[in-house]
């Protein structure tokens, strides 16, 4: 992927949108391009998290696996171009809450947790912007999950 294409992906992602050119270039310096084949896992549920990802091209299924049975994983959502996943690791060093599997050949931008946090500490303006965007994205996902749970609970009665 050309550097300008990577920059376009960053700019169109919710997390880095609205950063100025200099700040976007700094974020670009901590990114790594990585490719996956259809069916390959980016990470598995309960793995330690060490990076967040942005879909440059392709599709990534987010899967929940049962903790108690050997049943097939349940697909939570499918992410596409410019979508971000794995961002929770910036606020919590816990285990991955779901698995991520590529549906088709996929190009991702990977940003290692330690490199992104260093950038946030070194450039507080970037750090504030990113953490604010992450908080908004996590709140959106929580609201969506709450709505899904509410619908399931009340549709059974």
Question: What does the model show?
Answer:
With 157 residues, this protein is α+β, with helices and mostly antiparallel strands. The chain has one domain (3-155): Jelly Rolls (Sandwich). The protein contains four helices and eight strands; from the N terminus they run ααββββββββαα. It has helices at 3-12, 21-29, 113-122, 124-155, and strands spanning 31-36, 41-43, 51-57, 60-64, 74-79, 84-85, 99-102, 106-112. The strands form two sheets. A four-stranded antiparallel β-sheet has the order 1-8-3-6. It has a four-stranded antiparallel β-sheet with strand order 2-7-4-5, with no helix packed on it. Helix 1 crosses helix 2 and helix 3 crosses helix 4 (124-155). The longest helix is centred in the last third of the chain and has 32 residues, at 124-155. The radius of gyration is 16 Å and the shape is globular. The termini are far apart. The model has no long low-confidence stretch (mean pLDDT 90).
Question: What's this model, at a glance?
Answer:
The chain has 157 residues and is α+β, with helices and mostly antiparallel strands.
């Amino acid at each position: 992927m050309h550097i300008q294409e990577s920059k376009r992906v960053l700019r169109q992602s919710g997390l880095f949108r609205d950063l100025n050119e200099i700040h976007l270039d700094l974020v670009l310096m901590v990114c790594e391009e990585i490719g996956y084949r259809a069916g390959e896992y980016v990470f598995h549920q309960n793995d330690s998290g060490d990076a967040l990802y942005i879909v440059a091209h392709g599709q990534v299924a987010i899967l929940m696996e049962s903790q108690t049975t050997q049943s097939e994983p349940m697909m939570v959502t499918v992410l596409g171009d410019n979508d971000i996943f794995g961002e929770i690791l910036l606020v919590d060093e816990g285990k991955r809450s779901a698995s991520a599997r590529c549906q088709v050949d996929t190009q991702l931008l990977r940003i290692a947790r330690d490199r992104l946090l260093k950038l946030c500490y070194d450039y507080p303006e970037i750090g504030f912007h990113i953490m604010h965007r992450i908080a908004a994205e996590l709140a959106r996902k929580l609201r969506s999950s709450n709505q899904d749970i509410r619908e399931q609970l009340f549709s059974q009665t």
